[in-house]
TrEMBL record:
Organism: Fructobacillus americanaquae
Record protein name field: Phosphonate ABC transporter ATP-binding protein
Domain ABC transporter: 7-251
NCBIfam families in alphabetical order: ABC_phnC
Gene3D superfamilies in the cross-refs: P-loop containing nucleotide triphosphate hydrolases
InterPro entries: AAA+_ATPase, ABC_transporter-like_ATP-bd, ABC_transporter-like_CS, ABC_transpr_PhnC, MetN_ABC_transporter-like, P-loop_NTPase
Keyword hit for Transport: yes
Pfam families named among the record's database cross-references: ABC_tran
Keywords for this protein: ATP-binding, Cell membrane, Membrane, Nucleotide-binding, Phosphonate transport, Translocase, Transport
């Protein structure tokens, strides 16, 4: 599969087992190297959409294609191969706090190993070099031997970014990557994402609560409300008057 980073979401709905509609007939075509920010009130379906894109959970209806290959129906080896191409960072960082930064970053490579190899920490020299490079990309090489728990929130998120880079992905999903971070740290993390988008051409899809931040970083803004897509425009077409409308449509906090 050639890596480009296109995402096609076709008629996707997700109904949770308890009957809650997480997504309601979403259609979205994302080109390679876009920086898409998804905005919406809490409960709008932003996380549900990201988790559907990398198949962290199944959808009820519709199809999602990554570089033309359907992830919604893939299984086994095919699913593992597709997933390598899609990295994700999380609101709570999801690091192993008692492990070193290096070990956390190397774990981003497990999709390329057999389970027993990664359990024993048998990472190749090449991957150790990759970990060094990834940490350099987020300016944290000096933290290589530190325990993850001893880093600040912003640093932990950037270790999350370095770990995600180990997959050598084409698609990078960020689920509320800066919630809880102060404005200065927020800028460092968002700037890291922007750099990867511009320098490596990674397709980025990030869930954010702040419209201001969306305006600063996105090439396209998508608004969700109660599981429905209610707004979708490239940044150049987002008018000041729209701004009010987006607030009214999807809210902000
Ligand atoms: N595992 C689940 N079981 C049942 N309902 C769920 C589950 N996960 C999410 N939901 C519901 O699906 C809807 C969409 O949730 P989702 O987490 O995708 O929203 P969100 O826009 O990411 O919100 P937030 O900004 O608070 O993370 C909400 O009504 C939520 O309560």
């Amino acid at each position: 599969m050639s890596k480009k980073g296109t995402i096609k979401v076709e008629g996707v709905s997700k109904v949770y087992p308890n009957g809650v509609v997480g997504l309601d007939n979403i259609n979205l075509d994302i080109e390679a190297s876009e920086f898409v920010v998804i905005v919406g009130l809490s409960g709008a379906g932003k996380s549900t959409l990201l988790r559907a894109i990398n198949r962290l959970h199944d959808v009820t209806d519709g199809h999602i294609l990554i570089d033309g290959e359907e992830i919604t129906k893939a299984a086994g080896k095919e699913l593992r191969t597709l997933r390598r191409n899609i990295a994700m960072i999380f609101q709570n960082y999801n690091l192993v706090k008692r492990s070193t930064v290096a070990r956390n970053v190397l774990s981003g490579r497990v999709g390329y190993y057999r389970t027993w190899q990664s359990t024993l920490g048998l990472f190749t020299r090449e991957d150790q070099d990759r970990a060094v490079k990834s940490l350099k990309r987020v300016n944290l090489l000096d933290k290589y031997y530190m325990k993850a728990r001893d880093l600040s929130g912003g640093q932990q998120q950037r270790v999350g970014i370095a770990r995600a880079l180990m997959q050598e992905p084409a698609v990078f999903l960020a689920d509320e990557p800066v919630s809880g971070l102060d404005p200065k740290t927020t800028k460092v993390v968002m700037d890291d994402l922007k750099r990867l988008n511009e320098e490596d051409g990674l397709t980025i899809v990030a869930n954010l609560h702040s419209m201001e931040l969306a305006m600063d970083y996105a090439t396209r803004i998508v608004g969700l409300k109660a599981g429905k897509l209610v707004y979708d425009k490239p940044i150049a077409e987002v008018q000041a008057s729209d701004f009010q409308k987006i607030y009214a449509e999807v809210g902000d906090r």
